[in-house]
Amino acid sequence: RAERLDDEQLQLGFEDLNADLARVETSLPPPPAESRPPRTQSERPSLPVHLPREDVRLDVEHQTCPCCGGILHLIGETTSEMLDHVPARLRVIRIGRPRYGCRACGTIHQAPAPERPIAKGLASPALLAHVLVSKYCDHLPLYRQSQIFARQGVTLDRSTLANWIGGACWWLEPLQSKLAEHIFASQKLFADDTPIPVLDPGRGRTKTGRLWVYARDDRPWNGPDPPAAVYLYTPDRKAERPAAHLANFSGIVQVDGYPGFDRLRDGGTIQLAACWAHARRKFYEVQQATASPVATEALRRIAELYVIEAAIRGQTAEARQSMRRSKSLPLVTAMKAWLEMQLAQIPPRGGLANATRYALSRWDALCCFLNDGRIELDTNTVERAIRPVTLGRKNHLFAGSDGGAQRWATVCSLITTAKLNDVEPFTYLKDILERMSAGHPMSRLDQLLPWNWRPATILN
């Protein structure tokens, strides 16, 4: 965590430096055309082709040469592009339904009213998706969203927005259950958890609930199944919670050092794999605090394993296992002997001894990756899934109830899985809310999972 914080702080510093340089460059007069250096290929990436283009034509004022008065002839055209922003705007959709009467029999005929995601509600599927993505993907609390709507002249208080979220999540919960089915059907998954403050009205303060994240990602070993992540809320961190979630699971679970996961071994159907990133982090913290040469050497040895992993990423599980047995196994064997020797020589108390014991006490679980090419070196896949929750927690401060925390889990499950499958969250949520409220069959719910989903415009 310390490394990530340092990187983010550096990026903030670079942002300000870039802004300072840009301000100076903007204040300078442009050089004369004849003194400009020759054009080189720009390193700036081209703008995405899916963005709409608006053409602006700037032509000369007169079609005669200002130098000699001759007629000008078109010999080419220079085209440049500028990225523009069109502010989001609200609009009102008026739905007219003509009524027809039959004079012969006196009956009245009218097209049925369209289904709405929230009965008698004002919000369209697009507006509901916008509120969900703004809160759970862009981490914009409802009170700030309410203020933004107010600047557009529309009063939508926080309670109204909260009601919309509750109504939208009613439609989305079956998809969260489908995601869980897909993930727990895997033979190998990641598991982690993160705290989430939840308002406890009876005590007048917050309590600490947990969001458990289970993820599968077979892409590193070129597996056939799509990546996915599901969040499940519980009011506490008892070991029985993940045991209940994984009661019917059989396979490998890669976890961090939380002791509560050890209970998963009790049934004999789950093998636990440990995380080298967590073992590394212990030595990194010691190295940063004391500049210990032993911690520095431990970091170097672990880095060698990551170099091998980078070289085999995307290869088949069999090829990865073969490479690990030939290259990683000797390094791991030597590292264990070296750590045991260091532990006998260093003071028994202190960060370095704790880091060493942490690694050695989990050695068998750390070495699981040597025997199965599907296992990753660390749990960074699920750590990345947790980061948006951490950012949201800093902005939202807390969930208003256990139900609010469950809705947080529902929406984050769909947004995270959409991003894992390169699906834009707003477009996805808008479309599935439209389809589900219009009566999409529950028997074909798999069609709406992010990796199967296709926009309605393409299907039509």
UniProtKB/TrEMBL annotation:
Q: Where is the Transposase IS66 central domain?
A: 120-406
Q: Tell me which Pfam families the record gives.
A: DDE_Tnp_IS66 (PF03050), DDE_Tnp_IS66_C (PF13817), LZ_Tnp_IS66 (PF13007), zf-IS66 (PF13005)
What region holds the Transposase IS66 C-terminal domain?
413-451
All copies of the Transposase TnpC homeodomain domain together span: 2-56
Region annotation Disordered: where it falls in the sequence: 24-49
According to the entry, every stretch annotated as the Transposase IS66 zinc-finger binding domain falls at: 63-106
State the PANTHER family in the record. Answer: BLL1576 PROTEIN (PTHR33678)
Q: What is this protein called?
A: IS66 family transposase
